[in-house]
Amino acid sequence: TSEQIEHLHRRFKQLSRDQLTIRKENFDSIPDLEFNPIRGKIVHAFFDKRNLRQESDGLADEINFEDFLTIMSYFRPIEMNMDEEQLDRFRKDKLKFLFHMYDSDHDGKITLQEYRNVVEELLSGNPHLEKESARSIADGAMMEAASICVGQMGPDQVYEGITFEDFLKMWQGIDIETKMHVRFLNMETIAHCY
């Protein structure tokens, strides 16, 4: 809505300190992100050209307000008047954004190492969990992904990684619409990715 865009524009101006663009360091002033274990991945996602709906790969050095709106559109809530096709596209857009957060080398696959990195980051705040335990959790999740996406693999087969199509299969039946959102209740908060 126009009211939401105005609110986001105020937030953009606050983050950019009244400049025309935002750089990664502008996100350092967001208190809620400071304690998020995947803070780096969230900030990175704002500058990932794939998420900016550009055809090129890589990272932008800065984003303008239009880019900011594009990124924030991934977090908008579901609309009641959406038909089945719109809902499907809405869901795929959200999942594509999330997939890009995991696919850090931009090769179109989430490898075991990329998945391990995310799991280790997510669990880094738990002082009772050792790094080896986090790796085991990631390895187990990757094996489950392989069984969902490939089925029974032979002993000499290696699972190369999760493609976006695999990622869609894995998220089937999970309500991403309520799990990926942004709270802008006040000017002190920004993105919460779960």
From TrEMBL:
Gene from which this protein is expressed: Tesc
Subcellular location: Cell projection, Lamellipodium; Cell projection, Ruffle membrane; Cytoplasm; Membrane
Record-level GO cellular component terms: cytoplasm; lamellipodium; nucleus; ruffle membrane
Keyword Lipoprotein attributed: yes
Species of origin: Fregata magnificens
Record's protein name: Calcineurin B homologous protein 3
GO biological process: cell differentiation
Position of the signal peptide: none
InterPro entries: CHP3 (IPR052490), EF-hand-dom_pair (IPR011992), EF_Hand_1_Ca_BS (IPR018247), EF_hand_dom (IPR002048)
Keyword Cell membrane among record annotations: yes
Superkingdom, taxonomy of origin: Eukaryota
A Pfam short name: EF-hand_1
Similarity section: Belongs to the calcineurin regulatory subunit family. CHP subfamily.
Keywords: Calcium, Cell membrane, Cell projection, Cytoplasm, Differentiation, Lipoprotein, Membrane, Metal-binding, Myristate, Nucleus, Protein kinase inhibitor
Membrane topology of the entry: Lipid-anchor
Domain EF-hand: 90-125
Molecular function GO terms recorded: calcium ion binding; protein kinase inhibitor activity
